[in-house]
Amino acid sequence: MLNPDEDTEWNDILRQKGILPPKKVEKEPEVEPVDPVEKLSKLSLNHLQAKQERHEDRGSDTDDSDEFLAEYRQKRMDQLKAQAARPSFYSYGRITKADWVDEVNNAPKGVYVVIHIAESGDENCNIIDNIMKEFVLKYPHVKFLRAEAVTCIPNYPSSNIPTLFVYKDSVLEHKLIGLAAFGGKKSLTPKDLELKLSSFGVIYLDNSLDESDANKHKKGFVLRRNKSDSDSESD
């Protein structure tokens, strides 16, 4: 018995003749937007648990470590709450010169706007486009935009492509102009661009926290505690 859904040469012929209906195309599953607060909360908890294990391995005082980790975690949760209060975008918008003021200069206060100045058909720009499409879901509090150089910046040199402009509160804070500024084609990867944007302060990479960050926070905690103990003794 003929199965119209089978992928056979005979069925292809029948479809061409209109005898069989077109083959059903399976839809790709939609990518669920990442909840940045939930993700960062999990990362923060894992990060703190790892630090607690390191403190225990070093024989740190249990009470001090517990208080330090509680204070450190509270600090991170405050940061997460502040992030959650910011506007979310979830789209990689295309703008023209006429849109620039509304989309860039008039962006919500405190929001970073990352603009990819591109040329249609450029291979490197295509790579960055795909990365930006990932980032809009991963970092929804950042406004990612694409602008064609020919329509936004007349006579913009092709040697400057690709370009990334980073704006905040109408001010151009950072820029990457030309492939060399990105570190060459080998550096056109999500990880490398994340590190670039993180160094600019645009995004926060929870797993980029190193031991020195925790140590600085703990030193401040210990100093505050010692001062409190000293004040109590003097009373």
UniProtKB/TrEMBL annotation:
Biased composition (Acidic residues): 1-10
Organism of origin: Cichlidogyrus casuarinus
Region of interest: Disordered: 1-64
Gene3D superfamilies to which the protein is assigned, alphabetical: Glutaredoxin
Name of this chain's protein: Phosducin-like protein 3
Homology family: Belongs to the phosducin family.
Domain Phosducin, chain residue ranges per copy: 61-203
Pfam families: Phosducin (PF02114)
Top-level taxon in the UniProt lineage: Eukaryota
Ranges of compositional bias, category Basic and acidic residues: 23-41, 50-61
